[in-house]
Structures are given as C-alpha cells and as structure tokens.
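Section: Multi-chain targets

For targets with more than one molecule, the full set of components is provided together so that the structure can be written out for the assembly as a whole rather than chain by chain. Components appear in the order listed by the source. The example entry contains two components.
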Amino acid sequence: MKKTIFGLLIASSFAFGHTALMSCFDNGDGSVTCEGGFSDGSSASGTVFKVEQNGKAVIEGKFDADSEFTFKKPSGDYSAVLDAGEGHKVYVGSKNIVE
Amino acid sequence: MTKKIILSSVVAFGLAASSAMAHFQMMYTPESALEKGGKITLKHVFTHPFADEHTMDMAGVEEFFVVSKEEKTDLMKDLKPITFKGSHNSGKAYESQYNARKMGDHLFVMTPKPYFEANEGAYIQQITKMVVNVSGLPTDWDAELGLKAEIVPLTKPYSIWAGGTFTGVVKSNGKPVPYAEIEVEYMNHDIDMAKNATSKEAKVTAPQDSFVTMGIKANKDGEFTFGIPKAGWWGFAALGVGTDTEYEGKELSQDAVIWIQAKDMK
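Its structure, encoded as tokens over all components, is:
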C-alpha cells in the first residue's frame, strides 16, 4: 500500500517538473489540429484535450499516439485546452489559430 | 633551432592569412524560436558575417533538407536563386520558404557545392545546420545526422541567453574530431529580408583583428564551449574536418557550420 502511494507521488512530481505546451493550426478544410507536449520533449499522448466555448467544453477527448487532436472548427470564438491537471492547462484562443 | 623558428613563423603566418579570410555559409531567418507555427523564409548567403566586406557567389547547392520529428524532408525544390547585396558587393545566393507548422524542432541542413577560393587555390564546402523551434517543444535539435562534417549541439541553438554559453561536439562522419579548429563570428550586420541586403551599419567594432573571426579549439573529445556575450546570431565553423579532402583535383576544406541565436535577458 505504502509502495503504491510512493509510486504515485513520483509519477506526479515527474509530470509537474515540466511545462505543458500546445500549438494549433487550421488545416484549411474546416478542421483544426492541435499538438501537445511537454518541455522535456515528452509526448502528450493520452492527455485530456478540450474545446471550450464560454467556459463550457463542447468537444472533449485525448491526444492520440502522435500527440495530436483534430476537430471540426465550431462556429464562433473558442479555446483549445490541453488539460494535464490543476495548474497545467494550456489555452490557445481561436484568434491565434491560423492556417 | 633555426629551422623550428622558421617553421613556427610560417605556421603563424598561414593561420593569420586564413583567419583574415573567414568565410561563413549563412542560413538565416529572423527568428529561430517561434511562438507558434507558420511560414518562414530562409536566406542562404556565403559571406563574412562580421566584417561583411565581401559576399561570395554561391556555386550552387548539393543538398538541402529538414529533419522534424525524426522525419527527413528534401527541400531542394524550394530553393530560389537571389542576388544578395552585402555592404560592399553583391553575390549569388538563395532563398527558400518553409512552412514550420508542426510544433517542435525543424533542423535544416544545407550542403553547398564546393566554392573555389582563388586566393587559396582551394575549394571550400561548408555543411551548414540551423534549427528553428516552434512552441518550445524539443524534438530534433540534438540529432546526430552522421554528416561528413557536423557540429552536434549540446545546447539548444535557439534557446540561449546573451551571457550564456554554447557547447557543441565537432564530428566527422559521426566520429569526434579532437582539437578541431573552430572559427566563431558574430553576425554584425542586420539582414533586410525584403531587400536581400545587409545593413551597412555594424553593431559592434572589433578592438583588433583576432576579434573579427575568433579562433578557438575543441578539446580532446572534439567538444567546445563558447560564452555568448551578445544577443543575435553567432556562427561556428569547424575547419577542414570533413571526410572529403579533394574536389576536381584541388584541395577541399570541408567544414561544419552551425548557427545559434542568443536573446537578451530583459
């Protein structure tokens, strides 16, 4: 039991030592691709990804094996969110997503 | 004894002459650490980046590619000939457009065709590396490509504060080159991307000739570290470390060049 707790602590401190990163681009076909990652070069594969409008998640999923998430552009302003837990969220606003 | 003295003065003279003629293959883009992905323009110019007293005519390009997320993409078709205007003359150069869309490192490698330097009766070929990063994700900056002449960085070339350092390893076909001779130059003239020209105004003045092209040496493992005193682009050229030593019956200096960009801490 103790061992499990210890392992968890190490796992979380490892992740928290790095900065979460995300970059998104418009594919020009009505879809947007976001790529996630961490400052040590590790992948964001499996990390939660959301698209938010007015603070509400309208799309939710996880980064794929290539550390990417592609979605259909919603109408209106939105934010792409990489959610690696409290204090480790990265927001990219739709105004900053270009082709 | 007399022989020794003569020999060392000849060597010294030879060194002085070659350092006065420091050529640098430039691969320039204004920003190497991009906040987000997008289209960038590169200028490929063969020049003397500190003094800017002579722009050479590039003889052509043998190979030009980019490595991103371990994937190599040929970029030869994107090269467009241009005339680049230095402070004193114009020379044949190239420009290319690239869509640095993906997050991570985009490691560019350009091998020009050997350039005949009439003053030395020899050819020069500088295999040149430059890294552009998108959004801070490190992916390929430290990749060792096993080039004939290569400087493998141990410091991210796009993430250096002015006052920091740059460390690299000089390699020849993947093997370290002990005590390699390296020339270091500061890009002392701004580049006007639209006009394909340098600004005539120099940023700094060298107190003496040894500060124009700085000669340093790698250690026994081929490693070197250089303190970066000022923000801007710095070029490193390891001379004659390549595996090819002859071109069209003449001597060839096959050099490894890498460019790094330092930023002010403000």
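The two ends of chain B are 56 Å apart (CA to CA).
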